[in-house]
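Ops channel
N.P.: pipeline sanity check, posting one input/output pair.
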């Protein structure tokens, strides 16, 4: 990456809920941006997944645990192997840090 990326400009190009755009690669990880709205399917990953709430509010529902409410500026790491799903009652945007091979809806 040789230029700065404008997150608001990328948000404006997202076609709808659960669509992702890769913003950057850093070391062995990628930074992705997604619009959240509604319920994502339950899934898990073989690696940790970091969420940073950019705008709006959403919750991370975690199997067997209390949901985590995410507000702008909140960061939470979903541990590998834990079934989870983001749920947003209104549109929200999140940055995720994960491995390049991580599938959007898990394994």
């Amino acid at each position: 990456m040789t230029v700065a990326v404008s997150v608001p400009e990328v948000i404006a190009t997202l076609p709808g809920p659960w669509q992702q755009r890769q913003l950057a690669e850093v070391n062995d990880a990628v930074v992705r941006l997604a619009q959240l709205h509604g319920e994502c399917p339950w899934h898990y990953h073989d690696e940790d997944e970091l969420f940073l709430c950019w705008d709006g509010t959403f919750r991370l529902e975690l199997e067997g645990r209390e949901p985590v409410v995410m507000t702008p500026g909140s960061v939470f790491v979903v541990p590998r192997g834990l079934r989870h799903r983001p749920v947003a009652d209104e549109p929200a945007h999140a940055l995720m840090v994960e491995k390049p091979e991580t599938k959007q809806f898990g394994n």
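N.P.: looks fine end to end. Residues 7-13 form the longest helix (7 residues).
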